[in-house]
Design brief:
Length: about 140
Amino acid sequence: MIALIQRVSEASVTVDGIVTGAIGQGLLVLLGVEKGDDEAKVRRLRDKVLGYRVFEDEAGKMNLNVQQVGGSVLVVSQFTLAADTNSGMRPSFSAGANPADAERLYHDFVKACQEKDIRTETGRFAADMKVALLNDGPVTFWLQC
């Protein structure tokens, strides 16, 4: 399971011209689900994403996590994170979970974030989404479990 997280001042996702999720300060989480991922990985990745210290404290050091700054998360499914790009000029998606498992685990990740009392917004699984963000920093990290 992969999360590409970006510290944002604001972010939103739109599907068919309708905003399905929007946040102010927080994390945009692009979530990729791979074959073999399970509920244990969902919980580990959730804890890593929410606990990752990417926000500055009063001394300007990245010592605070999204919950400590009162931020939110916007979770967007992104199957392309599971791509194998090692050979050729076209990605292979053979490492990605099948759509049914990926959708279930995506929703499980969202619920797991909500269980930690953090405002969690979403895109729509498998939809053609338009994601807008104002990256703060820029600060971007690849997290994997």
